[in-house]
Specification:
This protein is α/β, with parallel strands linked by helices. It has helices at about 1-30, 45-50, 55-65, 105, 110-115, 140-160, 170-180, 200-210, 215-230, 240-245, 265-270, 290-295, 295-305, and strands at about 70-75, 80-85, 90-95, 120-125, 165-170, 190-195, 250-255, 275-280. The chain starts with a helix and ends with a helix. The longest helix has 28 residues, at about 1-30.
Length: about 300
Amino acid sequence: MMWLWIILGVLGGLIILFLVGLYIVYKGTFYTPVKGQDDDYLLTGATLEYCDVNIINKMITEMRNIPYEDAYVTSFDKKKLHARVYKNNSDTVCIMFHGYRGTPCRDFSGGAHDMIDAGFNVVLIEERGHGESQGHSITFGVREREDAKSWIKYARETFGEDKRIVLIGISMGGATVLYASDLLKEGDKVISDCPYTTPKEVISNTLKYTLKMNPKIFYPLANLSSILFGHTNLNHMDARDFVKNSKADIMIIHGEKDTLVPQSFSKALKELFPDKIRYESFPTAEHGLSYIMDKERYRSIVNDFLGIK
């Protein structure tokens, strides 16, 4: 009998250690916010390596200083979500989705400014678990797609059902706008900068090339941690399913030097839907830096796609 209790104790201890390990994975990968996350001026990675920090900080400051109105919606799971809204007399509403642990004023310090200068209405959202938006789990576009649905509804109710909706996203936000593309009408637009096709795809890439870990072993553990602690299964979200059914015009932009989210992800999507997707690549750009690396060309292709004179 004593041996039985010893065996059960050992098994119980192993289960607890396993669950603790999964929670550590969840905290490191999916939990939000983390320290410094909502600091508009917190620049990391490729931005520090390839960009002039003074220029970036100036762009961020200019974006932060543009007057805006606060807007709030309630998500499908009863989270209060926040956005900055810039109203203009326009037939177009741009809804902009920042990246993983990003901020809207940092990630769109140039792009949002351009849309406002073009005279468009702009809804600069804070993803769930970022800024003033409630929530504590990043779901790599799964729940964020449902949040996009709430913001599209807000835009149509606030600005009018007849307004053209333009979804613009970068990185995780770029994937999110592809996931939400089937919610749009004919004549609406999607601009997706450096997206991935599935959460599994981007997490597995990070595991393999950044963390040097076998994704066949460790991705299922990461997804299990998301299921247990974030209540979200990442395995059932694929941009191909939504792009296939979309009526919107779609443009994907990707840097050829992107090491975080390889350009091959976007190119494969373009090859699958050659008649639905306009594809633009930037030869010298790392992840999310196409705008900074060639601002003139970036603005030119966006203006052409949106019909800005």
